[in-house]
Every structure is written in structure tokens, then in C-alpha cells.
Amino acid sequence: VTDQDTDYYYLGAIYKTDWGQVGLLDGYARIASDPSLKTYWKNSLVPYFKATFGDLYLEGEANVTWGEKEHDGSGTNMDYKGYNAYLYAKYNLGGAYIGGQFGWVSGNDPATNDEDESGASGGADWDPCLILWNYNLHKWMGNMGTVVGGGTGSAMSNAMLIQAFTGTTMDKLTVRGSLTYAKADEKPAGYVDDDYGLEFDIEGIYKIYDNLSYQVGFGYLWTGDYYKGNDSNADIDDNYLVVNKLTLKF
Q1: Residue 125 CA, distance from chain mean position
Q2: What is the Cα–Cα distance from 239 to 221, expressed in whole angstroms?
Q3: Cβ neighbours of residue 50 under 8 Å, at least 6 residues apart?
């Protein structure tokens, strides 16, 4: 009988204090789905924190992943060592707030054939923008920039993102605006540039009931040359969208 299963093991700890909490998660995966491999495993170490100091709220997370893929016969053996990091800050100003967030996922260096430096993705449940790495846009419209070759999906990978935002809540209405710059951590082989672009978003969410809300939004992306892929003569345009969404939670 050939062993072709995949096993996951997790161990975590959380420490709570008056100002918030800190935690650490360790995850190990033994992957035996490919019978041609002698060894294939990955391990991730994920520390995080959440903290509130008066009107200032902070949260952050990091992920360090390492592992090894070794072939039983022919094939290139691979070492894994990827990273990601996330930091979010929000300061309340009465009925308004300001803040910023930073996200980084290491990319794979095209110059190293026996190493994969790709960090774990930001996850499809984190939507930092209305266009870039947005789950709903990816689900209903597909990748950004798939025509030429350079594209981005629903989960952030191989990228660094810096965002400033502000907003206010008035009774049942919340209005939020943000400005985001993003670039690739590693420029893929042959690509023209590593610039994803600059995005401006504004959105309003009206809470009709506790479990029912209505959202409208507008996003505009000054598209970077990353989306030219490996074609320096490609003609790319700025991108924009209008969001009109009714959300029911139950």
C-alpha cells in the first residue's frame, strides 16, 4: 500500500492581558500525495498580537515557513523558506478614525532553481482594497491583468502593500476612504516591472438591520507596469469599478 495522504499538525498558545492578547501557532504538514517524492514537508511559525491603548488599536501577525521537497529519483530537490508580515493601526477621533496597514508576502526569487522563497498568502478573507486582491472581484470577474500575463488573484502573494485610510460612522452609516500603494516583492523572470500601482477606494455601508447591510463603493487603480507581464510594448489602462452590494448574515 502506497502512502499518499497528507497530515497536518497544529499547536497554539494564547496569552491574554489587560491591553489585549498575544499568541503563537505552529503548523506542520507532511505531504505524501506524490508517490515520486521521498520527503515533502512544511512547517510554519505564526506569532500575532492584538492591543488597545486608549483610542489606539493595534494588531499584527507574521509567518515564517520552511520545508523540504526531496525526490526519490530524478528531479530537482527544493528547499522552502518564505515569510509574510501584517501590521494594522487605527486611532479613534470621536466619531471618526484614521489609520494605516502594511502587508508583505515574500516572493520566489527567479534566480534560485532549488529554493522557493514564496511566503504564505494573505488569504482570501482579507480584502485590503476594492480592486487589488479582492475576493469578490476575483470571484465574479477573474484575475486582474490575465490578458498579458501579469495577474493578481483573490489572495495577496509576492507583494508589499502600504495603505492609509480614514472614515467615520454616523448612526447606521459608515463611510471609509483609503489610498494604497503596492509593488511586487520579487519581479518574476522576464517581467517588465514590479509596480502593481496606486489605488484609491471610497465606500459607504448602511446597516439596515443587525444582519442586513447595503454597500456602495468606488475604486480606481492607477495600473502599474507589472501588468504588462513580459511584454514591454503592451498597452495597459487604469482600472476602476463601482460596487453595489446587499449583504445578509445569518
Answers
A1: 9
A2: 5
A3: 20, 21, 57, 58, 59
Terminal Cα-to-Cα distance of the chain (whole angstroms): 45
How much is the pTM? 0.89
pLDDT, greater one: 203 or 35: 203
Counting residues of the chain whose pLDDT is more than 90, the rounded percentage is: 66
- What DSSP designation does 226 have? G
Chain center to CA of 196: 14
Whether residue 1 is predicted with pLDDT greater than 50 in this model: the reply is: no
Name the strand (E) or helix (H) holding 138.
Answer: helix 135-141
pLDDT classification of 148: cutoffs 50, 70, 90: low
How far apart CA 134 and CA 129 sit, in angstroms, is 6
Q: Which amino acid is at 49?
A: F
d(CA 137, CA 134): 5
CB 42 within 8 A of CB 26: no
> In the predicted model, what is the mean pLDDT of residues 128-153?
79
Give the rounded percent of residues in the chain with a pLDDT score beyond 70: 96
Short-list 187, 246, 170, CA closest to 212: 246
Phi, psi of 225 (to 5 degrees): -75, -5
Which residues, in sequence order, are bridge partners of residue 23?
14, 48
CA-to-CA separations, 91 to 57, 96, 149, 172, in angstroms, rounded: 6, 9, 40, 20
The Cα–Cα gap between 74 and 24 comes to 38
DSSP per-residue letters across 110-130:
TT-SSEE-PPPP--TT---SS
Nine-digit cell string for 100: 494605516
